[in-house]
Amino acid sequence: MRLSNQTTGRLLAAPAAFYMSLFFVAPTAVLLVYSFWRAASYQIIPDFVFSNYLNALASALFWRVTGNAITIGLITAAATLILAIPVAYYLTYVRKSQAILYLVLITWFSSYLVRVYAWRTLLGTSGVLNTVLLQLGLVDAPVEALLFSRFAVAITLIHVYLPLCILLVASSLRDIKPELVEASRDLGTSQLGAFFRVVAPNAANGLIGAFMLTFILVAGDYVTPQMLGGPSGQTTGLLIADQFRKTGNWPLGAAQAFIMFALSILLYGAITLAGRWSGLLPGARRRQGAGA
Amino acid sequence: MSHKIAKTSYGMHMDRRTALFGMTGVAAGAMLVRMSSWAQAAPGGELQVMAWEGYDLNAQLTDWKAATGVSIEATSITNQDDVQAKFVAGNPPPIDLAEYNQAYADLYIRELKIATPIDPAQVPNYNADNLFAQFHDQPTWFADGKLWGSPYIWGFNTLLFNSGKVSAPKSYKDLLDPPFKGKIAIMDDTVSSWPVAARVAGLGAKYPLLTKDELAQTFAEFAKYRDQARVIALNQGELMNLMVSGEVVAALCADPSIMGQAAEQNVTIEMALPEEGPVLWVDAWFIPISADNIETAHAFINQSLDPKVQAEVAMAVVQAPVSKKAVELLDEASRKRIDYSAIDKIFASGLPGIPPRTSETHATYDDWVTAWQEFKAGM
Q1: Cα nearest neighbour of B238 on chain A
Q2: How many CB atoms lie within 10 A of CB B125?
Q3: Across the strands, what pairs with B154?
Q4: Chain B residues contacting A via beta carbons under 8 Å
Q5: Cα A128–chain centre separation
Q6: Out of 3.30.2420.10, 3.50.50.60, 3.40.190.10, 3.40.50.2000, which CATH number does the structure's domain B155-279+358-376 have?
Q7: pLDDT tens, B53-82?
């Protein structure tokens, strides 16, 4: 019996689809239902109210920590993407670059927490960085702002998520034939121009995907901000965790999670629109082409 | 062949052989029931315990574990809220024992009903002869004729400082002095930090029953300490690392159990008793509703009250035993640290509680959690 391509595709996707339905879609649906229930002193009461969303949106604390999370997410995702693109470009278009790929992958062999603690050691007042600065005579006293700051959070999260971002960007560059870049160079475009006129537009969806995935992972992370961020380390993830852990207010925590989810979607939409407006994304390019 | 007939008290008649068989059967049955009871009561298997870091008795019960074959699977808690969060969910995990601060007794036992009664008959070390009167059958743990929690260890959370770098503070307010700027840590532990926040705001006597205005006043004052702090430490281990590395030189109010660990790394941390007073606490064991190794949980509680074990754990975590028999087993420094002959005075003013879950007149527990989150976020 010969199966059609569509049937084969469905069969191959079925285990993953079943897994995701069971362990992501269903729990998310339950969480959505919870967000409309009420909580009274650790008791969760089935209901249909919008008060959790209204309370979260009216909370200065929620916006403060969400602002923190989004700021850390944007800074880290932007810096990570900027650092990832040249490496991914090298991996894609330069022969014998496998050693670099292995170096990228090897960083995943160390635990997330070990890396966080390593950065804490590096950035501490008696850490390596301060010691070097002192010995070079660049500072008179240890720089305390290196640790327990937004800087410390960003640099650590860039370190954690850079390998992932490199692989995502590299996979989006692989579909762009080197001949296209060579052709643009032959037509007199500079190397940077070739990137912006040929590579970036063709890889735009992949670049935006890499940016957004890094942003979502970073903005939702509450371990590193909490351990290295000081007062700026309070993020929405921590606030949500506290609703489940400390106050037993699961409905409010669920509502806060969905607001954060909606904000991520909005941000994705805004970046996509900005990409089209600037001409980097294919949609805008096609429209420009159609109008020409 | 004749058989003598025995007359039973029930007026039935049977021969002697039958009677002997019957008696043997009854005796064997009784023995089997007894053996079955022993088998049921014998501790064994895996015991899942939730306790503060260093308080799970894994180190102190080595011999007992070897003798019984019990393995202790310990989960560390960093905040008392970690405990109730496990059991208010629909499908609580099969944790057999959990440690809790006395302030949470009402919440766990009477409101959330996540504790099950402990059978004192299975905890022979729980007796008036072994325990100080402050812990035996006191209303906090013993209510409605049932034992809900077995007091296990008590002590103070207080101001800790690196004596190699700073001199002993006499008051929490001393930490606002310039030498401590950017060099102190505040623990992310509400049980200790909230009473201290109220005290430094001059509202300690009213804690935990503060109005919302008083709550705002409390955190407005406490914000000065946050602005002075290098970090809000997540747990005891992190605080110890920060003090050993020199990142901070004092902790506003923390568990002295880190002193021993720091000493192993050649850093001397000492405890100070500020004029506003340390935060007194008593921790107890309770058997949660989802426990599935209840016999072993009882045996563990019993072992935890053994005077030798009590002395060992008290010395290890620099706290105090609930067993009066354990006092003489403490080393000299531990015995002198607390005046056990005046224990009634130590507990005379009672133990701190937690803010009410619901109230028309006072700030609730949720109000305090929100204030604490705002405090940590720098608001």
Answers
A1: A227
A2: 19
A3: B282, B320
A4: 79, 81-82, 84-85, 88, 111-112, 182, 190, 226, 230-232, 234, 238, 245-247, 357-358, 365-366, 369-370, 373-374, 376-379
A5: 28
A6: 3.40.190.10
A7: 889 999 899 999 999 999 999 999 888 888
